[in-house]
């Protein structure tokens, strides 16, 4: 007896046998049980996911002697004829080889006659998108007014090529790619039935090679069994199907994360020794880092990643040791290198270079940790009196018979008596801006008249918005709180009005200082441009003038 390949031997014969298409099976079964069966169906999806098998099962369920039934009996002569492909009332037509209008006209004419001995005449047209425009137009008429004894089942991998006039007259079912876990479970059942000894790791490699297609997966399994017999080794599967060993990916990524350049280059040597395509391996490595990033970034990665449970556990262990930002930086480098391999004559060199660069990357510190370190540094500076405290000017010794001078009013600041540290004031304003952006923005427009752990005096121009904003009780209270936190002691805060008639100019505010620096920079750039010999020569020759200068 001739050998029957696994894809045909274990082809689904009932709706319950379909793997990964439960949404289709349940809908069709309910339609049959309630008598709401449409006259035309469109099955769409990738290759090898069960479209044609579902069409045959539906044909058997509709024509079964025990039916119409939710499941065909597969025992009556009608079911057996459909299974064997010998039924005179169920026609399987290849749309790729019957694309002409004459073929469809013949189909249309024959469909008018009643079935010979079945309940329905059923036409299964595979790859229906291959029909010509005239053929679709000929098919449209019978779909508009179908005879009650005719059912059409169309299958296609490219539904976007089917005219909308046809789509609108069909019930559409989208078949999904089958998950890795479901493919592995089906392979395990077949292995048990066939008496095959094989590990889950080998089954995972075979299922991954199938890429969501049951037919492709079973064809690969057939090839493996032809090579290995009834006892399958992991190494044989890896070499035969050309899938990269997951351990090689894990070892190489571990070498990259630990900065082991020797191990990283050794991994490339192993890739070359195994005969793997370098670009394909790089794509596999990109997938590995993507898996690590997703595992580290989401709470339920198993709902996103199509991986076996053992593989997921192994990846979780490796991902837990690294920050998402570190994984993402290396992933970006890999993607850039892979895109460059398409136009390079040295793909191995590109891979080696990017792995060395990935191994040399330093870990990224979380932003919150950096902020905490900055705060600690600022707190350490605040605790150093000689760097932050500005001693007040010593009063002149009193002469005999002289009276003590009266204190100055609050709005006339003793500017001439202070020796202020501009950088310390900037640190304090920056701290306030981090804690309260609005309050920090107001402080940038204030002049530091006096600054020290015990007392801070800030001046604002008379009548300005920033003066009124800082004189607000809530703003002043918040500023006292921030000053106490920054200085680590109680600090007196006073707000002073700066009048325009004052003889002694107040220190520049941070906003004024920034504007002054920008103006000086612009003036310097303008002078440099105006004095440049090329510019002066161009103006002389062309007789033009400089209207605007933009710094690149």
How would you characterize the overall build of this protein?
The chain is α/β, with parallel strands linked by helices. It folds into 5 domains: 169 residues, P-loop containing nucleotide triphosphate hydrolases (Rossmann fold, 3-Layer(aba) Sandwich); 62 residues, Helicase, Ruva Protein, domain 3; 115 residues, Up-down Bundle (Zinc Finger, Delta Prime, domain 3), CATH 1.20.272; 93 residues, GMP Synthetase, Chain A, domain 3 (2-Layer Sandwich), CATH 3.30.300; 29 residues. Helix content is 53%, strand content 8%. It has a 5-stranded parallel β-sheet with strand order 2-3-4-1-5, with helices on one face. About 7% of the residues have low confidence.
Describe the biggest sheet? 5 strands, parallel
Gyration radius, rounded: 40 Å
> Do you know the CATH architecture of the largest domain?
3-Layer(aba) Sandwich
Query: Percent of residues in helical segments?
Result: 40-55%
CATH class label of the largest domain:
Alpha Beta
Per CATH, what is the topology of the largest domain? Rossmann fold
Strand fraction band? Answer: 5-15%
Indicate how many domains the architecture comprises. Answer: 5
Shape: elongated
**Strand sequence of the main sheet, in spatial order?**
2-3-4-1-5
Structural class, by secondary structure, is: alpha/beta
Please, what is the average pLDDT?
82
- Unreliable spans are 384-420
Number of E-state strands = 8
Number of helices: 25
Q: What is the rounded distance between the termini?
A: 80 Å
What's the name of the CATH homologous superfamily of the largest domain?
P-loop containing nucleotide triphosphate hydrolases
